[in-house]
Structure formats: C-alpha cells, structure tokens
C-alpha cells in the first residue's frame, strides 16, 4: 500500500481551504467594483491574501490610494523576519530562485518549511507549499470573480459579509496570548473611535497604536528589586 508523504497530504488540505478563501476574495472584489483584469493582476503580482482583502475593503469604503498602500505594506511587514528565518539555503542560491521564492513566501510556506529538520525536506516543503498555494489562490480568486459577477447585487445573498468574516478568520489564530489580545482590543477600540472623524483607511493605520501594549512592562516585583536608584 502506497503511503502519502505527510507534506503532500497537509499541503493538499491547506489548498482545499485556500480555495474557499480565494473564491470569497474574487466575489468580494467584484462586488466592490474591481474589474476582472485588476483582480487577476492583484492576485498574481501582489499575492497577499490579507493585504488583498484589506485593499478591497478600503476601496469599497472609499479609502485613499495612500492609505491602501501603507496598510498593505504594514500588514506584510511580517514577511521581512520570515525571509531571514528561512534564508538562502531554503530559497536556493540562484537569483531567479530567490526572486520567485520571495514572491511565493506566505505564513504557511514558512511554517511548513521551518517544521522540517532536514534541509532537503525543508526546501521541498517550502517550494511545494508556496507553489501549490500560489496556483490555488490565483485560480480560485479568478473563478470567484467570474462567478461573483453573475450573482447580481451581493447584498441580496450576504456576500458582503464574507469580507469581515475572512478578516476575522485571518486574525483569530494570532490571538493566542494575553499580549496579542490586548493589542487587538486596543487597536479595534482606537479604530472605532476614529472612524467617524477620519477618512476611510486611516483609522486602520491609527489602530497600530495598540502595538504599545506589546512592549515589555516591568513588573512591580522587578521595580521593587531595582530599588530607588534603578539598581538592585
């Protein structure tokens, strides 16, 4: 009996989930007024699920181009340490492999790669995950855009609700500790308060003030041990 490689099995399950998200993105982008050509180009060249959802949401809300670009850059800033974590050993030595490998870098491809101890399996996991998700995302988002355009008014079917639901799904896995919860709650509160007074998109950027709660805070025990002079 043939045994399926766990990497292949897990990537297949991941792609099945990506199909649903990609279809949702395509339908939502069409409902927001983006033409099919822009949706296809965005998925192929931007290729950042969370940033794409955010961009479409800001476009739908009338956000400025500057707010959309800055929000996307900030959301994807986490990819910088990801690239350092996997390094050239995983991407490959040639320039084209580094360029292509950097483009298909996602949270999932990095996580699958770092889970492997053997360098060869790490490379295989990274490239298999990255390539499979790239193809899956582009096909499903295009199909979603085509099908979404035939549905008429999306508000009749509740398709517009998929955008906040998708963003919530992307956020929930990060809320695993108290610090993340404090940052998320504070950022959401700041955005809600600022929304009536600022243009669309800017409250999201202002919500970054919640990151203050991610800074280390000295405990009362540590302050007591340090003494009045700041030294123990």
Description:
The protein is mainly alpha-helical and 232 residues long. The chain is 69% helix and 0% strand. The protein is globular and about 55 Å long. The N and C termini lie far apart (66 Å). The model has no long low-confidence stretch (mean pLDDT 76).
In short, what is this structure?
By secondary structure, the chain is mostly helical. It is built from twelve helices and no strands.
Low-pLDDT residue spans: none
What spatial form do the alpha-carbon principal axes imply? globular
| Residue fraction in strands | under 5%
SS-based class: mainly alpha
The run of helices and strands is HHHHHHHHHHHH
Task: Compute the number of strand runs.
Answer: 0
The profile of the biggest β sheet is:
none
Cα distance, first to last residue?
66 Å
Radius of gyration: 21 Å
Percent helix range:
55-70%
Mean pLDDT: 76
The helix count comes to: 12
Descriptive labels:
69% helix, mainly alpha, 232 residues
Per-chain topology:
Blueprint (H helix, E strand, L loop, with lengths): L5 H26 L4 H11 L2 H12 L4 H11 L3 H13 L3 H9 L3 H8 L4 H30 L13 H10 L6 H17 L7 H5 L13 H7 L6
